[in-house]
């Protein structure tokens, strides 16, 4: 473990303290570690390294042909898909999570194709580094 001092402007120190409070971190050091790890993971997304993730989709299952179109897209990207989970939120709405692993650009392309399907009410890709 390395120890070092950090000088921050007052407004940045307040932001750091807000981060500590928001995430219930024990101290500023843990907040700085959190920020460095977050930055490192996000750099891998733009660097197109291998990442893992989850595509979250909410849709009306009554929407005509949506499930078939979604399956067609998923089959085109089957090499990225690890697992799919489908649950019924209510009579009309379904929640589907698609667990994925691969190059960040490929995961974004898959997510974009799925989220753009007519009938998808909400969609989001969450990624994290695999290493």
Structural description of this entry:
The chain is an alpha+beta fold. The chain folds into two domains: 10-46; 50-129, Alpha-Beta Plaits (2-Layer Sandwich). It is 42% helix and 31% strand. It has helices spanning 10-22, 28-46, 66-76, 104-115, and strands spanning 50-60, 81-88, 93-103, 120-129. The protein has a four-stranded antiparallel beta sheet. The relative contact order is 0.19. The mean pLDDT is 91.
User: What's the oligomerization state?
Assistant: single chain
Unreliable sequence segments: none
Q: What would CATH call the class of the largest domain?
A: Alpha Beta
The separation of the N and C termini measures 20 Å
Return the CATH topology of the largest domain.
Alpha-Beta Plaits
How would you characterize the largest beta sheet?
4 strands, antiparallel
| Mean pLDDT figure | 91
Question: In DSSP terms, counting alpha (H) and pi (I) runs of 4 or more, how many helices?
Answer: 4
Q: From the coordinates shown, what is the CATH architecture of the largest domain?
A: 2-Layer Sandwich
Please give the number of β-strands.
4
